[in-house]
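User: I'm writing a short report section on ligand binding and want a predicted complex to refer to. Could you take this sequence and S-adenosylmethionine and write out the structure as tokens? A short remark afterwards would be nice.
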Amino acid sequence: MRREEIKAVFDQQAQGYDRQWARMAPIREGLHFLLESVFAGLPADARILCVGAGTGAELAHLAREFPLWTFTAVDPSGAMLEVCRRRAEEEGFASRCRFHEGYLDSLSIEGPYDAATCFLVSQFILERDARSAFFRGIAGRLRPGGMLASSDLAGEVGSSEYEALLDAWLAMMAAAGIPPEGLERMRAAYASDVAILPAATVASIIESGGFQAPARFFQAGLIHAWFSRRAAEDGA
Ligand SMILES: C[S@@+](CC[C@H](N)C(=O)[O-])C[C@H]1O[C@@H](n2cnc3c(N)ncnc32)[C@H](O)[C@@H]1O
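Assistant: Sure. The structure tokens for the complex follow:
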């Protein structure tokens, strides 16, 4: 999908987004629980960049657990970001947040971040070089050694394992209340609008974007997550 289409899709979903995915909470909470440990060594006053923050699920979790951290939420979908802002106001951490409607390349330059999150975002970038450049854009905003936690749908499309996993994934979505037409739309989107690549390939794209040895710390169904550190400029 092109940028404008992705933005339109999320603008349209924003109001119902949290309700639609509410029953996926066990997966989300497992990922966020592990994320706490991954980021546990960051400074008490860490600055966090949330790329593709959406309605603010990971941001809100980190804001609750780490009361002195500050956040920059970046998302091209103004409607998603508005839900995120409302959540921050309701939960009392809006004063620790900055909201940027747009992409990373239009975010004003400010001091480097200690860490970044990028959950379920890079998968929408279909072209491999562009996906690598996307991660490079994040690396460029981090201090040396700064951390990235990212997640994406991954799998070896066409393999019997992937097909079995996809069936189980869609069955789980059905049990979570996604209607049949939504499941069909999702199956079609996975085939054409989402770059589902083998986990090792996603890791190598993250690495080519300027991060050291991504470690896969989570998998639930098709969702895989990695953490990595910004590599030194010379790649050492
Ligand atoms: C599937 S949602 C995930 C939201 C949130 N990270 C979560 O896990 O709940 C993907 C979000 O990424 C945003 N997005 C898509 N492409 C992006 C890009 N190139 N840069 C930043 N955000 C992007 C979308 O607008 C959407 O809000």
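A remark for your report: Residues 3-153+196-230 form a domain with the Rossmann fold fold (CATH 3.40.50.150). The chain has one domain: 3-153+196-230.
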